[in-house]
């Protein structure tokens, strides 16, 4: 008899806790969706120049160059990990891991060669 009374009490507590947590989740979602408008300044417009007069085209070229360099390094890491995955899958005889490793290695090759591909089709200059 005690066990049924205890389980009924536990179920009531769990139900109450679940309702409280659901309500708190809904309230936090509503609070995060409401927009707050903030004004940074009330005065004049500001002109931003980088490095004493560098134009936006040069800055974007540098940023794209940095991103392509990062992409190349990530691509090399993917190639290495893909080859490792293929070797391990041959040792353990797992066909899904072979496919995953080959796809990862091919994606790494594309990422490594992305800058060269973009230069070849004349989207970016050297």
Concise overview:
The protein has 126 residues and is an all-alpha fold. The protein has helices at 2-33, 56-92, 95-112, 114-120. Helices cover 75% and strands 0% of the residues.
Write the layout of secondary structure elements.
Layout: H1 2-33, H2 56-92, H3 95-112, H4 114-120
Helix pairs in contact: 2-3
Report on this structure.
75% of the residues lie in helices and 0% in strands. Mean pLDDT is 76; it is low at 38-48. It is mainly α and 126 residues long. The chain contains four helices and no strands. It starts with a helix and ends in a 6-residue tail after the last helix. Helix 2 packs antiparallel against helix 3.
**Could you describe the largest sheet, including whether it forms a barrel?**
none
Mean pLDDT: 76
How many strand segments?
Answer: 0
Q: What is the overall number of helices? A: 4
* % residues in beta strands: under 5%
Order of helices and strands: HHHH
Structural class: mainly alpha
Runs in which pLDDT lies below 50 for 5 or more consecutive residues are 38-48
Provide the descriptors you would attach to this structure in a database record:
single chain, mainly alpha, 4 helices
């Amino acid at each position: 008899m005690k066990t049924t009374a205890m389980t009924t009490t536990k179920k009531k507590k769990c139900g109450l806790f679940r309702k409280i947590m659901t309500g708190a989740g809904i309230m936090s979602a509503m609070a995060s969706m409401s927009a707050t408008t903030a004004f940074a300044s009330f005065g004049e417009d500001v002109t931003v120049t980088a490095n004493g007069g560098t134009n936006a085209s040069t800055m974007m070229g540098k940023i794209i160059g940095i991103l392509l360099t990062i992409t190349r390094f990530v691509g090399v890491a993917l190639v290495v990990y893909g080859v490792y995955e293929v070797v391990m899958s041959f040792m353990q005889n797992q066909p899904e891991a072979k496919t995953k490793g080959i796809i990862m290695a091919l994606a790494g090759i594309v990422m490594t060669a992305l800058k060269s591909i973009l230069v070849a089709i004349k989207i970016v200059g050297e």
